[in-house]
Amino acid sequence: MTSRPTRADFDQYMVPNYSPQKVIPVRGEGSRLWDQDGREYIDFAGGIAVNALGHCHPVLVNALKDQADKLWHLSNVYTNEPALELARELTERTFADKVYLCSSGGEANEAALKLARRWAYNNHGEHKHRIISFGQSFHGRTFFTVSVGGQPKYSQGFGPVPGGIVHAEFNNLDSVRELIDDNTCAVMVEPIQGEGGILPATQEFLSGLRELCDQHDALLVFDEVQTGAGRTGSLYAYMDYGVSPDILTSAKGIGGGFPVGAMLTTDRVAPAMAIGTHGSTYGGNALASAVALAAVRHIDTPEVLEGANRRFDLIREHLEIINRKHGVFKEIRGKGLLVGAEMAPEYEGRAKDILPLAIEEGVMALVAGPNVLRMAPSLVIPEEDIVEGLERLERAIARMVSGQ
Ligand SMILES: Cc1ncc(COP(=O)(O)O)c(C=O)c1O
């Protein structure tokens, strides 16, 4: 008989690129999780903005089970009904005319960057290959995406990085004006920087990027891997800005916990991804697409989207009450259910100290960089779970403040 796995097995058998918390959750329902010992937790982490409908939502479970009995995988030598339906739904609900399906955010961004380069190469020539992105941005862990991302720690130590990539300052249009020219093929930006600290782009910034891209015939790429799939209270965050990109990437919440990614684009740009230019064995997998289709249909409803905005107000209100008592936060910000609380100067860099204490108190949260406590719970988290989870979080914060 084999023994039950423990956290020590992680250190023994897994490559050491992560440092997971001590507890091992074994069951989830809605916004609650239970660990191996039956201890219960309220989940404000949502699998890093992935479990958009919480754990084991019946709509997703039923979609998965239905499809599991029919067809799982074909490869791209054939197409399949769920993938076609998902692509149709995504185009009908967004600016896009065409969709490329894959299995993660990094892959969606890799596809977006390759598409932008190839589009510029085909339409303008080799010189137009420069990509502009932003300091502190995060676009995934493939070598291209860490190089475009604005956190050099993720791209250093792996040999020469791909060339032709420059970084401007987020929310500073002048810094983009200095870099953009007719050699620029794409500007890639997160409408709200997620890993960088839950920093929303200003309206002026995104509108200005659109204008600059139009002036130089560069493609505007919105990375909505974290902000998409209803996270900010709209199906995609760009909708609230009224600024449409040429390419948009989506993952995380779009699969509700099943690995799915998508790159959306227009009829003007899509032809550059001609037969043979790019691909993935699993992209558009029938099982994944069936779950994503159910997730998109369920999320893109007024009930879920308006609910996310209402819940943001509730979380902010409670965090402000906690802050009046403990003075740990400098600012509470975000949109929908992507919430960031930046630490006050006395607690600079200590956001991650809250996480293990919070787990001990029965609530799971996240950080976004060293200085921001992040919450990305289910879009349909019951309001009583929010209130109870924040009570638990307050106990953890009180312990951090008192050094217990
Ligand atoms: C904005 C953004 N882009 C891309 C990614 C990478 O997605 P994945 O981890 O699914 O490859 C992330 C993940 O945190 C993200 O937040």
Describe the structure using short key phrases:
404 residues; alpha/beta; Aspartate Aminotransferase, domain 1; Aspartate Aminotransferase, domain 2; 2 domains; 7-stranded mixed beta sheet; 4-stranded mixed beta sheet; globular; binds pyridoxal-5'-phosphate
Describe the model.
It contains 13 helices and 17 strands. It has 404 residues and is an alpha/beta fold. The chain has two domains: 7-56 and 302-402, Aspartate Aminotransferase, domain 1, CATH 3.90.1150.10; 70-299, Type I PLP-dependent aspartate aminotransferase-like (Major domain) (Aspartate Aminotransferase, domain 2, 3-Layer(aba) Sandwich). The strands form four sheets. It has a seven-stranded mixed beta sheet with strand order 4-12-11-10-7-5-6, sandwiched between helices. A four-stranded mixed beta sheet has the order 1-2-3-15. A four-stranded antiparallel beta sheet has the order 13-14-17-16. β10, α9 and β11 (247-250) form a beta-alpha-beta unit. One of its GO terms (molecular function) is pyridoxal phosphate binding. InterPro entries: Ac/SucOrn_transaminase_bac, AcOrn/SuccOrn_fam, Aminotrans_3, Aminotrans_3_PPA_site, Class-III_PLP-dep_AT, PyrdxlP-dep_Trfase, PyrdxlP-dep_Trfase_major, PyrdxlP-dep_Trfase_small. It holds the Pfam family Aminotran_3. This is Acetylornithine aminotransferase.
